[in-house]
């Protein structure tokens, strides 16, 4: 099966066609290069408003976009970008479905790297797929930003609040999780374990979202307890058993 047939099966591009593939030298190594062209008579989309507009001109030099490697060989898409004459935004570069803005990594490759970065360290991921640490970082950042933009904060009725210690105990992060039955996920992260940090987390929920919280699980850190009492007073505060036992043991030690 040709590489173009594989791409049409796993990464079909609307309004564009994989025209030909070849093995060429790219950055000192052999790679699969797949040329892409726009379908005839197709309107390009403005990268600002995402509306179909007439083509203004085409760039003189083609751009390379890195795709998921095959059998350890790098794969690149090659395409000459068009500019559109947008009635709203003026002359702008077109929007393409396989990459965002000036990013030279394709969306499928970013998702691929981000998934592996959950299993391996970013350094190990970059070494395994012969790419840079920066490419792994940008891929993870892009996927996270996309997820945050698309996520829904509706229906949150139970949350957990915890602190995470790092830098050998000298620094903290405040973490807020959704712990509804069947929906457990990290919602917010803020620097420090101060009242401001937790308030910043609650600020990302609207008033209705905060009113919907019925249960909150946390430790006995006073900053957290004070903010919970102020921002979600209707919620039942379930204290962490570990910290309750720890506090009782400390009290017993003092009595002894």
Description:
With about 260 residues, this protein is α+β, with helices and mostly antiparallel strands. It has 3 domains: about 1-105, no CATH class; about 105-150, no CATH class; about 160-255, Nucleotidyltransferase, domain 5 (2-Layer Sandwich), CATH 3.30.420. About 35% of the residues lie in helices and about 35% in strands. It has 8 helices and 14 strands. It has helices at about 5-10, 105-120, 120-130, 135-150, 195-205, 205-210, 220-230, 240-255; strands spanning about 15-25, 30-40, 45, 50-55, 55-60, 65-70, 75-80, 80-85, 90-95, 160-165, 170-180, 185-190, 215-220, 235-240. The strands form 3 sheets. The protein has a 5-stranded antiparallel sheet with strand order 4-3-9-8-5, with no helix packed on it. β1 (about 15-25) and β2 (about 30-40) form a beta hairpin. The chain is elongated and about 80 Å long. The model has no long low-confidence stretch (mean pLDDT about 90). Pfam families: DDE_Tnp_ISL3. This is Mobile element protein.
């Amino acid at each position: 099966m040709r590489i173009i047939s594989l791409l049409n099966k796993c990464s079909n591009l609307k309004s564009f066609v994989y025209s030909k593939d070849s093995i060429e030298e790219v950055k000192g190594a052999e790679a699969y290069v797949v040329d892409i062209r726009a379908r005839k008579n197709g309107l390009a989309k403005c990268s600002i408003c995402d509306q179909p507009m007439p083509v203004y001109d085409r760039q003189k030099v083609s751009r390379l976009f890195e795709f998921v490697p095959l059998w350890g060989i790098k794969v690149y898409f090659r395409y000459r970008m068009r500019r559109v004459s947008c009635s709203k935004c003026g002359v702008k570069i077109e929007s393409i479905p396989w990459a965002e803005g000036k990013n030279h990594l394709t969306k499928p490759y970013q998702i691929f790297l981000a998934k592996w970065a959950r299993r391996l360290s970013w350094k190990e991921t970059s070494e395994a797929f012969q790419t840079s640490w920066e490419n792994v970082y940008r891929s993870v950042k892009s996927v996270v930003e996309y997820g945050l933009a698309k996520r829904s904060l509706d229906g949150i009725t139970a949350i957990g609040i915890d602190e995470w210690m790092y830098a050998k105990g000298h620094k903290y992060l405040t973490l807020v999780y959704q712990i509804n039955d069947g929906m457990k996920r990290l919602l917010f992260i803020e620097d420090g374990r101060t009242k401001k940090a937790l308030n910043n987390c609650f600020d990302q929920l609207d008033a209705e979202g905060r009113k919907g919280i019925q249960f909150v699980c946390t430790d006995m850190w006073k900053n957290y307890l004070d903010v919970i009492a102020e921002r979600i007073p209707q919620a039942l505060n379930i204290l962490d058993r570990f910290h309750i036992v720890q506090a009782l043991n400390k009290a017993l030690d003092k009595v002894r």
